[in-house]
């Protein structure tokens, strides 16, 4: 078969009608214990569940880029980059080709991708419960490198939708009275910042990166900048400073209260912009204690 015919067949496959795919209305997708919803319901092609690409990639915490001229999607999470092209049965993981049973396709103006293949490309565990028609996905978290920020994508999108853009960042201002507070997504650093400062520049904040870096809470207390680095999947944090020796034992209760208050305020801001992300999604379980 010549290349022209192959290209035509690939394009035809990409726009298959509902008569050639089976609806997967009964299929439920659950990630980290939370059911997922989709603008276009999952469908089954060649015994593979297909879901909208942006929903699955961003829920995994990946950055998604779409090239309409080539109908190619490229997504990146940490050190892993996945590339798929509509109608092409080859997926590339960091440049290495992987054959797909069902290539990406377009249904109801949404690009659909194979759920298991793209999830496993990022190291996620995928389990199928045939008795309930449910796919369970558990994202991979590298040991010792911190949480993969499972809620990062959802929180980022909420900030973009609610915030104002200036200088490469989207920001939502929550300032009241003498307290300046904001939730910001920096497009260059691919990071989310929460900050709250008083008129005398005493304050606190939170840093969330999309590269597996552990969640960090910072507190500017009495001129000393303290960083609470959270242990993966726990309520425990380790305090480091800007190089100054500090009496941590005598300050433990005060530091813990400040970090707890910062996290609580940040969650209120998440809720205020309509985000469903919680601290648990970011790998932090309350109440906090110092390591």
TrEMBL record:
Origin superkingdom: Bacteria
Database matches in InterPro entries: Cu_amine_oxidase-like_N (IPR012854), Mao_N_sf (IPR036582)
Any single Pfam family the record assigns to this protein: Cu_amine_oxidN1
Residues of the signal peptide: 1-23
Name this polypeptide is given: Copper amine oxidase-like N-terminal domain-containing protein
Organism of provenance: Candidatus Ornithomonoglobus merdipullorum
Domain named Copper amine oxidase-like N-terminal: residues: 30-137
Keywords tagged on the record: Signal
């Amino acid at each position: 078969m010549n290349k022209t015919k192959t290209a035509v067949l690939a394009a035809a496959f990409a726009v298959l009608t509902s008569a050639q795919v089976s609806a997967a209305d009964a299929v439920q997708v659950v990630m980290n214990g939370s059911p997922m919803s989709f603008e276009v319901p999952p469908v089954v092609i060649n015994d593979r569940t297909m879901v909208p690409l942006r929903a699955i990639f961003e829920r995994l915490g990946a950055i998604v880029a779409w090239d309409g001229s080539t109908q190619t999607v490229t997504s990146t999470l940490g050190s892993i980059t996945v590339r798929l092209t509509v109608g092409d049965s080859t997926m590339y993981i960091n440049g290495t080709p992987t054959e797909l049973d069902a290539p990406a396709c377009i249904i109801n103006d949404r690009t659909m991708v194979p759920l298991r293949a793209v999830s496993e490309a990022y190291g996620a565990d995928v389990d199928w419960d045939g008795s309930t028609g449910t796919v369970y996905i558990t994202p991979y978290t590298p040991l010792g490198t911190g949480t993969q920020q499972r809620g990062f994508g959802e929180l980022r999108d909420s900030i973009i939708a609610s915030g104002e853009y200036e200088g490469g960042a989207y920001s939502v201002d929550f300032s009241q009275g003498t307290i300046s507070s904001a939730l910001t997504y920096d497009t260059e650093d691919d990071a989310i910042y929460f900050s709250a400062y008083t008129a005398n520049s005493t304050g606190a904040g939170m840093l969330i990166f999309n590269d597996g870096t552990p969640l960090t809470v910072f507190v500017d207390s009495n001129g000393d900048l303290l960083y609470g680095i959270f242990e993966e999947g726990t309520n425990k944090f380790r305090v480091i400073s800007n190089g100054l020796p500090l009496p941590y034992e005598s300050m433990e209760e005060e530091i813990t209260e400040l970090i707890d208050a910062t996290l609580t305020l940040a969650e209120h801001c998440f809720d205020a912009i309509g985000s469903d992300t919680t601290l648990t999604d970011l790998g932090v379980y309350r109440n906090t204690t110092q390591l």
